[in-house]
């Protein structure tokens, strides 16, 4: 999208301007080629390109196909991972969320180390270790890119409203080719 504009005269709610979406059942390479094509077809020149993802490796491929693209960890997924792993200690969880929002990887890792010592069971310890790996794999995209600006929009809602609702209602099932065409 190109930015945000007020949805009402009172300005209490905003909407995305020039939102572009693409989806389908395809390889990582084809996905990013399609996205790059859409971006370059729509804009002769563009400024900063920000890609927001859940931390999966294929999303990081954006920078190989879209010059200058910066990939960040979506704060919904980041915060959910922290909350699930550190839910046994509300103080640690809140501090970790603050450190993650500030992009302070070292501070976050100190809290994860403390959580490993305080984990009340093996299940909790395993969750903390999983969180540690997740954060290490996504270190470069940890900081919230917005720096006080609005968010990227709710991608989870887009998936739910645009794709999932059409593909999952009333016992629907799709072949890979059919799902690709629907997307």
Oligomer: single chain
Distance between the termini: 19 Å
Strand content: 5-15%
What are the secondary-structure elements, in order, as H or E? EEHEHEHHHHHH
Instruction: Tell me about the largest β-sheet.
Output: 2 strands, antiparallel
Q: In total, how many beta strands?
A: 4
Portion in helices = 40-55%
What does it look like?
This protein is mostly helical and 183 residues long. The protein is built from 8 helices and 4 strands. The strands form 2 sheets. A two-stranded antiparallel ribbon has the order 1-2. A two-stranded parallel sheet has the order 3-4. A hairpin with a 7-residue loop joins strand 1 and strand 2. Helix 5 runs antiparallel to helix 6. 15% of the residues are buried. The mean pLDDT is 84.
Features:
183 residues; mainly alpha; two-stranded antiparallel sheet; 8 helices; 9% strand
Question: What's the SSE blueprint?
Answer:
Blueprint lengths: L2 E4 L7 E4 L10 H15 L7 E4 L8 H4 L4 E4 L1 H12 L3 H13 L2 H14 L3 H16 L17 H14 L7 H7 L1
Parallel strand pairs: 3-4
Antiparallel strand pairs: 1-2
Structure at a glance:
With 183 residues, the protein is mostly helical.
């Amino acid at each position: 999208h190109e930015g945000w504009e007020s949805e009402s005269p009172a300005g209490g709610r905003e909407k995305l301007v020039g939102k572009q979406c693409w989806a389908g059942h395809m390889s990582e390479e084809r996905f990013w080629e399609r996205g790059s094509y859409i971006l370059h077809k729509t804009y002769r020149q563009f400024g900063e390109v920000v890609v927001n993802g859940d931390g999966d490796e294929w999303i990081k491929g954006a920078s190989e196909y879209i010059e200058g693209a910066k990939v960040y960890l979506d704060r919904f997924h980041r915060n959910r991972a922290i909350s699930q792993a550190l839910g046994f200690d509300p103080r640690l969880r809140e501090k970790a969320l603050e450190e993650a929002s500030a992009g302070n990887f070292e501070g976050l890792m100190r809290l994860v180390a403390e959580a490993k010592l305080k984990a009340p069971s093996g299940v909790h310890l395993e969750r903390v270790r999983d969180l540690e790996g997740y954060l290490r794999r996504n270190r470069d995209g940890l900081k919230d890119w917005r720096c006080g600006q609005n968010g990227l929009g709710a991608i989870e809602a887009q998936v739910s409203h645009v794709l999932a609702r059409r593909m999952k209602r009333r016992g629907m099932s799709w072949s890979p080719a059919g799902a690709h065409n629907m997307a």
